[in-house]
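ARCHIVE CARD
Drawer: 12
Card no.: 0347
Subject: one protein chain, sequence and derived structure
Cross-reference: see card 0346
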Amino acid sequence: MGTARERLVSSTAVEAVVPFWQPIEDGAIAYFSGRISAPRLEFRALRIDLRSPDITIVVRGGHSDTLSTKVSSFVRENALAAGINALPFDPVSGKEGEPRTNIGIVVSDGIMISPPQAGYSALVFYNDGGASVVSQAEIASTDDIANAAGGFHQILEAGELTERAFDTKARHPRSAAGISADGRYLYLLVVDGRRIGSIGSTEAETALMLRALGSHDGINFDGGGSSSLVMRYPNGRIRPVNTPIHDGIPGRERAVAGCLGIRIIGGVQKE
């Protein structure tokens, strides 16, 4: 997976996607990669079993919570199995270790690193094990929140596309996340863009993909050159499964701020 020889499951349209999950890490995490012919899109996805006792959610605002980090560095430094970029930030560059302002909420182990941003949504993980996509304006305290990663907007609600998703037509590389109706599964999705083989998805197409994967509710994270889904491979190597494009260079990761990661107890191998 995530290699030049990776075989992508082909679908004729976004609505026709049927996930073929490949279990990894004893089934606590599963991987799926696909290609859509109309429009031309390539995507990668993870399904995480939140009920697995071996799964832990990790959210950070960046390196040391205030400095820029690539998602691959975030995965490496926090001993994670996988990670994805989450909320928008300022300023934009490819250099790690620079000051970053998180634009939206970041809650890490019950501590608020960055406050809510009115008008945006967030993926919230609660102390009781539940998870949901909510408006950041609704988050008044962190008393019952274990972790939270802000993003842009909710694009899937109760299995239906939101009005926002229908109204936004621009195509970009996308990072997104969803939660199943029963709250058991977390889905992480990345869609490549800005290249011939994958032109980037609209918010509506991203929502449809999340729904096809199994999501009931979904959020659009920061995208464009920030989009990166990183995994730790069985041989210990850490790298993106997609093709990030920072400054127009395929394969170059952007140094972002807030990230969402997955840690597996006893499942991490050294590089």
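Annotation on reverse: The chain has a mean pLDDT of 94. The helical segments are 71-77, 163-167, 203-213.
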